Amino acid sequence: MGNRKEINENRMGTIIIIPQGMMGSYARESLLETALRQIAIKYSNDPDIEWAEKYGTKYEDGRFMMHPYCWCGKDECKWCGDAQHPNFFYKPIGIKVWWYKYIGRGMDIEPDNITNGQVAEMLNDLLNN
C-alpha cells in the first residue's frame, strides 16, 4: 500500500486508511523522518500545541532551518509560492527536505543519496550541541 497504513476497526468491514505519518511517528519510518521529528520537538517553543512531532516547527539559525507545510496559498509565500523553499534545510551539508502537510508524507529529499551516516551526523549536531 505504499505510504498508507490500513486499520480495520469496524465490524461491518469498513477500512479506514491513514496516510503515513498522519498520527506522528510510526514503527517503520526512516531514520531521516525520526530525526526530523526529534529536531522539531527540541526546537519548538510548544511542541504539544503546535504538534511539532507531526508538522515540524518554525525555527532558523546558522546551522538549519525548519518550517511546517504552509496552506496560505499566497504567491509571495516562500513555502506556497513559486519559490517552494524546503521545509527543512541542514546548511553544513546541504540536506533539503520538502513534505506535504506533515513530516513523512510525500517527502522529497535533496540530495537524493544522503546516507544514514549523514543523517546521524546531522542529528548528533542538532540534538547535542
Largest sheet: 5 strands, antiparallel
Mean pLDDT across all amino acids: 82
Number of structural units classed as domains: 1
Q: What overall geometry do the principal axes of the alpha carbons give?
A: globular
* Spatial strand arrangement across the major sheet: 3-4-5-6-7
Helix/strand/pairing class, anyone? alpha+beta
Q: What amount of the residues lies in strands?
A: 15-25%
Order of helices and strands: EEHHEEEEEH
Radius of gyration: 16 Å
Counted beta strands: 7
Can you describe this structure?
- The chain is α+β, with helices and mostly antiparallel strands and 129 residues long.
- It has one domain (28-128).
- It has helices spanning 31-43, 52-55, 116-128; strands spanning 4-8, 15-19, 59-60, 64-66, 88-90, 95-98, 108-110.
- Strands 3-4-5-6-7 form a five-stranded antiparallel beta sheet, covered by helices on one side. The protein has a two-stranded antiparallel sheet with strand order 1-2.
- α1 packs parallel to α3.
- Residues 1-8 have low confidence and may be disordered.
